[in-house]
Amino acid sequence: MSASRKEAPLTSVQVEALVVMKIIKHCSQSFPLMTTGFIVGMDAKSTLEITNSFPFPATEPPPSTDTYHDNNNMSQWAAAAPRSKANGIYQNEMIKKLREVNVDANNVGWYTSANLGNFVNMNMIENQYHYQKELNERTVALVHDVSRSSQGSLSLRAFRLSPAFMAAYKESKFSAESLQKSSLRYQDILLELPLQIHNSHLLTSFLHTLPSSPSSTASQQIPNSLSELPPTHNLPSPLHPNLSTLTLSIDPFLSQTSDLLLEAIESHHTELNNHQYYQRSLAREQAKITAWQLKRKAENASRVLTKQTPLPEDEWQRLFKLPTEPSRLEGMLNSRQVEQYARQVDGFAAGVTGKMFAVRSNLLPEKME
């Protein structure tokens, strides 16, 4: 059984419509604070079926007058909730109750809320690694972007950590040399799985029983002449054009995403400067070690001529301490987050650019004849 499961990797995620509604309600009620919860379901061959979801119990922070820091603390507690011991016990109790009522429920992952795609961080990695560290545990992380969903299109995505990143994170090897040997890039951190929403057969049957439009008995009878036609003032009017799509104002989500993109780029430059500082410090220490070794060799050569015992040449390991190379994990996560923001800016700018080209002649100054 375990061998067959390993041979069929996960290729898609199927989420029940009720689970989608529960996740949307939970994330929307707590917005802009981060919310998390766990999901249960079944593993059907290469498809992960998610049948139910439950939010993690809310933790009340100590009273304080600083609202800004309180919100940050609540978001941090919510982000760390999936890997806490108390919530682990809570998950096991909920799954036990579901099995008592003959519901097939297995822990298949967790979900979190996001704001304009801001979800690629250490909390995301640590939570998913906590769920995915077992070889036979097939779990996913559902990310619901509340801000993008408020525009009218649902933003719900499923992610997993790649096997190469799991191996590197287990060994905590994120140095430049190890990343070069393993050929691990920031694009290889997360694997996105296609997600589809599923309705039960009972709900589908109910939707098919609903009439497409309200009908009256008069409209069902075929008139015999023009005089018997019903009056047209009671008929529904055709759809009017949506004039709001013609506005030339820049989408506010585009400006917010651009600001977040600039912050992510600044964080990336900060990590790059830290690595450059490490390289300069390493070069200075290596130069000191080289000078000390040359001096010790010359001193030993003179001691040999005077028939004295040479001094050990490995004392530099005790006298000098090489700086510790910083982890490149933060830089990789920042690069992945920059890519996420860039894709969002590309999507937001498409509509604005199209409208600008449509009215290009009115925006340009008139040519002087």
Please give a structural write-up:
- By secondary structure, this protein is of the alpha/beta class.
- It has helices at residues 2-7, 17-30, 67-80, 85-100, 122-132, 146-149, 163-171, 176-182, 201-209, 217-220, 252-305, 316-319, 329-358, 360-363; strands at 12-16, 36-44, 47-55, 106-114, 140-145, 156-161, 190-193, 195-198.
- Strands 7-6-5-4-2-3-1-8 form an eight-stranded mixed beta sheet.
- α5 (122-132) links the parallel β4 (106-114) and β5.
- The longest helix has 54 residues, at 252-305.
- Mean pLDDT is 78; it is low at 1-5.
What fraction of the residues are assigned to beta strands by DSSP? Answer: 5-15%
Low-confidence stretches: 1-5
Percent helix, as a range, is 40-55%
| End-to-end Cα distance | 82 Å
What's the gyration radius in Å?
31 Å
How are the strands ordered across the major sheet?
7-6-5-4-2-3-1-8
Order of helices and strands: HEHEEHHEHEHEHHEEHHHHHH
Question: Which secondary-structure class do the elements indicate?
Answer: alpha/beta
Mean pLDDT: 78
The total beta strand count reads 8
The general outline is elongated
Largest sheet: 8 strands, mixed
Query: Please, how many helices?
Result: 14
